[in-house]
Give the backbone structure.
Amino acid sequence: MTKYEDAKRCPKCDQPGELKGTSVIERGARVETYHCMNEDCSWFNTGWAVQINRDGSIPEHNTSDPKQFALPDWAKNAADREINQTAHLFGLDRDPEDPEYGKAITNDVPEIRRP
Ligand SMILES: [Zn+2]
């Protein structure tokens, strides 16, 4: 399994997530937002983001890699807020019909603007 395939899986139940949105960010990199659709999972309908560089690699030190922060339940609400905020920054909380949908506010997302 590639790291990308791994990153698409739910951090909790390891089932493949459902792709909810893709945003192109700087220099051809993109962020994909996934939701867990496993009703038995504590992350059901919870989203996470995966950054993919233009060359297809996943940044090693990217905190949006779900495998790098296995969160205890008490931290889940904070994580949900962060995911929601991330979705907001990438315009993914908008109606898909909205012309602003998927437009990243990259100036406000310093952690994905690494060289
Ligand atoms: Zn899950």
In short: Confidence is low (pLDDT under 50) at residues 65-70. The radius of gyration is 13 Å. The pocket of zinc ion is lined by residues 10, 12-13, 15, 36, 38, 41, 43 (CB under 6 Å).
